[in-house]
TrEMBL record:
Listed name of the protein: Lysophospholipase L1-like esterase
Region (Disordered): 271-291
Top-level taxon of origin: Bacteria
Coiled-coil features, chain-numbered ranges: none
Ranges annotated as biased composition (Polar residues): 271-282
Domain SGNH hydrolase-type esterase positions: 468-625
CDD domains membership: SGNH_hydrolase
Length: 639
């Protein structure tokens, strides 16, 4: 500033030198002359203008820097996306049992790369003197080999990639076709090159690229939010991945189960809100009473919002319960909505594993999805026919089928992450199925042996020794989409007491606050950690205790969101060894160090009197709880 505050103060003292003595108006003195006052006003106007200009310039510079960061990150993300598109655009072929290392005769039984070829094996031929002969073949022990039916046209060969399961030289490697279009099979030279050397083959390359794209996307999202901080009003201190993943999980029709747990003290429990119910007797464990579900505390308000927004409408239901060890109240809410999806498009991939009959895709208004996916299998010697693959989180789903004629249906395997977990008999007379051409919704419930998180489920049609032509006609995949929200707030809890009494390794026998099935954990602690009774005293110890809580095994592989409690009125140093603002500082610090989301429920009460939003200078009243709930909701929706 051209005029400093010191200069302005000196001018004031000079102008009022005869009017004020020691801060008290002097009687009988004249007001200062206008000629002395006017320059002071001009100096103040100029100082304000200079200050505003400096602030505006800083804000503009910060905005431009963030926009440049977003632009740079988006460019890097585009490059990564181009790479992954190229890899994912490849046609992954069914694995081959061998790959050639030199020119061979394309007929009869022989030994290639240490692998003896029999009849009907898939093999990769890639070293022929006449390169037009290269390709994927099916062996014939007594005659000429034939090109595999999934690799005998230009469309099937372009971008083809295949994994080799056996062989001294090529076993465990993946190869891709480098030849560009146009391709005339049998005329165009086909060049195969190694694409991977790890046992996962192409999947490993795709996984690495996907991780890179995810990380890049997260950086872009964080940078974007930084440019919106002043305008958004959402008090999210550190926007990380957990809130975004929670938003994705509650929205995704293929996420069957979403589990949310709120950990905290009396504010999370619901103290201060109306009609909370009894809170005694209590001993600081999960056996303590819980607040009534009807009480408008912020966790209950969040529950109702999530239900109304994501689990309402036809096919929805609500179940309210309590933690088994708790004598009263309702800690748990389970909301369900059954969604019927057609398993062909979007995130579903349907592929041919050996059956030559084409997949049919028919419209029919009698189907729950108005479509019928026909998976015929007409090769008795080939066990598997077709496969439906999709990403999945959960433990159950239902397959709806149609059986039109006796002895036409077959079996199917259910795989989780490429491991068979169940074989299902989908023939009439099994699993309640009957021959009924008019019933497009015969349901086969599937319960997986364990909860799956971000896995891949596959349904493979299977002959299982059956003869003749077989079919599996699928009309829908039904997902009972369940959303669980648990309030595990414990009155009087500190990070120390919560860790000792309610987390993994506690001796109380009342369970662990975060069940293995639940993934998203909101933690709001720290108010009681300020007390002199927590030893040793001090903010550094709170930092230590919060990190110890976060390191507990119950939070392994969980998506954690830290929250900062509202301001409190009593900050008496004789009672509290540090302030609520210092609690806030530690949570910010831990969030940054751990790359954990932080929702700031402290800042939203800035400028308000304690009696406006609390009942006692500490516990939020109904208004305070509603403001916290709204802040959490906005954080989720803004992720």
């Amino acid at each position: 500033m051209e005029n400093s505050m010191g200069q302005i103060a000196d001018a004031f003292r000079h102008a009022f030198r005869d009017f004020v003595t020691d801060g008290v108006p002097a009687s009988g003195k004249n007001n200062p002359a206008k000629s002395e006052i006017r320059p002071i006003g001009q100096m103040i106007e100029q100082a304000i203008g200079d200050g505003t200009g400096n602030v505006d310039a800083k804000v503009e510079a910060e905005r431009e820097a963030r926009e440049q960061a977003v632009s740079d990150l988006e460019a890097a993300d585009a490059a990564l996306s181009a790479r992954i598109d190229a890899v994912q655009g490849a046609q992954r072929k069914e694995p081959v049992t061998f790959a050639t290392t030199g020119n061979i005769t394309l007929s009869g039984s022989q030994t290639i790369d240490g692998v003896g070829t029999g009849n009907g094996q898939r093999g990769l031929v890639m070293n022929q003197t006449n390169a037009a002969q290269n390709g994927i073949y099916v062996t014939n022990s007594s005659g000429a080999w034939t090109r595999a039916t999934d690799a005998d046209t230009e469309a099937e060969l372009l971008g083809a990639m295949v994994y080799v399961t056996g062989g001294a030289v090529n076993g465990g490697l993946a190869f891709g076709l480098a030849t560009k279009e146009p391709i005339v099979v049998g005329t165009t030279d086909l060049l195969f090159v190694q694409t991977s050397g790890d046992p996962e083959g192409l999947a490993g390359a795709v996984s690495d690229l996907e991780d890179a794209v995810t990380a890049s996307t997260d950086e872009i999202e964080t940078a974007r939010r930084g440019t919106q901080t002043l305008a958004s009003g959402i008090e999210v201190a550190i926007p990380g991945r957990a809130l975004r993943r929670l938003k994705e999980a509650v929205s995704d029709p293929l996420t069957q189960y979403v589990g949310i747990v709120a950990i905290g003290d009396s504010i999370t429990w619901g103290s201060g809100a109306s009609n909370p119910g009894t809170s005694t007797p209590r001993d600081g464990t999960l056996a303590d009473p819980r607040a009534n579900y009807d009480s408008p505390n912020f966790v209950n308000l969040l529950k109702r919002y999530l239900q109304e927004t994501y689990r309402s409408g036809p096919g929805s239901s609500e179940s309210i319960g309590n933690w088994p060890a708790s004598p009263s109240g309702q800690s748990d809410a389970l909301y369900q909505k059954i969604s019927a999806v057609y398993p062909r498009y979007g995130k579903f991939t349907v592929s041919n594993l050996g059956a030559t009959a084409p997949i049919s895709n028919q419209q029919d208004s009698r189907s729950p999805t108005y479509m019928v996916l026909g998976l015929p299998h007409n090769i008795p010697g080939q066990d598997y026919g077709h496969q439906i693959a999709f990403p999945f989180t959960g433990s159950m789903f239902t397959l709806s089928v149609r059986i039109t004629q006796a002895d036409l249906s077959m079996f199917f395997d259910v795989l989780v992450n490429d491991v068979v977990v169940q074989t299902v008999n989908a023939q009439e007379g099994n699993n309640g199925l009957v021959v009924d051409a008019g019933n497009f919704d015969q349901q086969i419930p599937i319960t997986l042996p364990a909860m799956v998180h971000d896995g891949v489920v596959k349904i493979r049609t299977k002959r299982n020794g059956l003869s003749g032509n077989r079919y599996l006609n699928v009309t829908a995949l039904r997902i009972p989409r369940r959303l669980s929200v648990r309030n595990q707030g414990i009155n009087g809890a500190t990070t120390v007491s919560y860790l000792a009494n309610n987390m993994a390794g506690n001796p109380n026998g009342h369970g662990v606050a975060v069940p293995a099935s639940d993934r998203f954990v909101f933690i709001q602690l720290g108010v009681n950690d300020r007390g002199r009774g927590v030893r040793p005293n001090g903010v550094n110890q709170f930092y230590e205790n919060l990190n110890a809580l976060l390191d507990n095994a119950a939070l392994d592989s969980k998506e954690v969101i830290l929250m900062i409690s509202n301001p409190v009125e009593n900050e008496d140093p004789a009672t509290y060894s540090f302030t609520q603002q210092e609690v806030r500082n530690v949570i910010y610090q831990v969030g940054r160090e751990r790359d954990v989301d932080v929702i700031d429920n402290y800042a939203i009460f800035r400028g308000m009197d304690f009696e406006e939003y609390t009942t006692d200078g500490l516990h939020p009243n109904d208004l305070g709880h509603s403001m916290i709930a709204e802040n959490v909701i906005r954080a989720i929706e803004g992720a």
